[in-house]
């Protein structure tokens, strides 16, 4: 069983030493989901993510640029980002704006609220991706509210426009979701969106893992940007740990057993027994069986000695 699990997580890109360590801690009957959670808790990640974290010659550059360096400067990347304790934030501008506008209006105010929320938390790397055609004057079929906010965010090197152009009167738009996932993946950051990017998950297994583990959903309540306190579910990390590069594990507080030494559950008791730390934690029934077995063995030996000449 362990070998099949070892092969499975090796294919996903995890290190063999990390997998063996987790399997030793959890035991041979551990579920795959539990093994994956433990690997994530340890800070382990697929080898592809570690390779992407290093400088790579393949960088995301706006179409039409001559070299990679100016493109990177336009994105406003700093050398100090790697030393920051908080994860980089990549916001799906279209998704956030339409959500704030109740899917009827492209509300730029929603983007500003999201950016301000992460700024107040201390995040230094924040990028918002919006299609270039949103710069154009609003039309009746695609209304935009507070369009001046886009200009302000662009001046602050926070907002990035994804390319689009017109060919024979028809608009050709580049897929902005691909930009969002690619930059967040390369920066090992967090994607802020209510979109699941299912097409991109099917396209790339490494992106699938990343989207599942690093997608931060949200809600707007009375012009207040509100992400959940448990982004990966009730048994997952807290929001603070989710947004941190080095999550802090909560200390396990063991609750003492209310029955104390009178408890008859033995090793099946879920509570803490300080008096049993150096003892084999057997149930009362198991202890009686063990004592009876010892007495029977001693009795047989005595009979054998008595019968011998």
Automatic annotation (TrEMBL):
GO terms for molecular function: hydrolase activity; mRNA binding; RNA endonuclease activity; zinc ion binding. A zinc finger (C3H1-type) spans 251-276. It holds the Pfam family UBA_6. Its cofactor is Mg(2+). The gene is Zc3h12d. Transmembrane segments: none annotated. It comes from Tyrannus savana. CDD domains: PIN_Zc3h12-like. One of its GO terms (cellular component) is cytoplasmic ribonucleoprotein granule. This is ZC12D ribonuclease. PROSITE patterns: ZF_C3H1. Coiled coil: none annotated. Belongs to the ZC3H12 family. InterPro entries: Rege-1_UBA-like, RNase_Zc3h12_NYN, ZC3H12/N4BP1_RNase_Reg, Znf_CCCH.
């Amino acid at each position: 069983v362990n070998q099949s699990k070892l092969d499975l997580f090796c294919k996903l890109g995890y290190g063999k030493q990390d997998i063996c360590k987790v399997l030793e801690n959890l035991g041979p009957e551990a579920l795959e989901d539990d093994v994956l959670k433990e690997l994530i808790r340890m800070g382990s990640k697929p080898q592809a993510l570690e390779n992407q974290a290093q400088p790579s010659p393949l960088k995301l550059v706006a179409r039409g640029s001559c070299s990679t360096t100016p493109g990177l400067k336009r994105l406003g990347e700093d050398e100090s980002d790697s030393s920051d304790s908080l994860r980089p934030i990549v916001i799906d501008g279209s998704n956030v704006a339409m959500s704030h506008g109740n899917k009827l209006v492209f509300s730029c105010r929603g983007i500003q609220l999201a950016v301000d929320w992460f700024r107040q938390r201390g995040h230094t790397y924040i990028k918002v991706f919006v299609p270039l055609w949103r710069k154009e004057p609003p039309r009746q079929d695609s209304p935009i509210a507070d369009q001046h906010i886009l200009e302000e965010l662009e001046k602050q090197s926070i907002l990035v426009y994804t390319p689009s152009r017109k060919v024979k009167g028809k608009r050709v738009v580049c897929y902005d979701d691909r930009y969002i996932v690619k930059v967040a993946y390369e920066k090992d950051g967090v994607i802020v969106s209510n979109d699941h990017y299912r097409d991109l998950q099917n396209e790339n297994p490494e992106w699938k893992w990343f989207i599942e583990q690093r997608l931060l959903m949200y809600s707007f309540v009375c012009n207040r940007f509100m992400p959940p306190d448990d982004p990966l579910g009730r048994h997952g990390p807290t929001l603070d740990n989710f947004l941190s590069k080095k999550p802090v594990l909560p200390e396990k507080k063991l609750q003492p057993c209310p029955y104390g030494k009178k408890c008859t559950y033995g090793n099946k008791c879920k509570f803490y027994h300080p008096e049993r730390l150096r003892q084999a934690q057997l149930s009362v029934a198991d202890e009686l069986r063990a004592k009876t077995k010892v007495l029977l063995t001693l009795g047989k030996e005595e009979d054998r000695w008595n019968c011998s000449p």
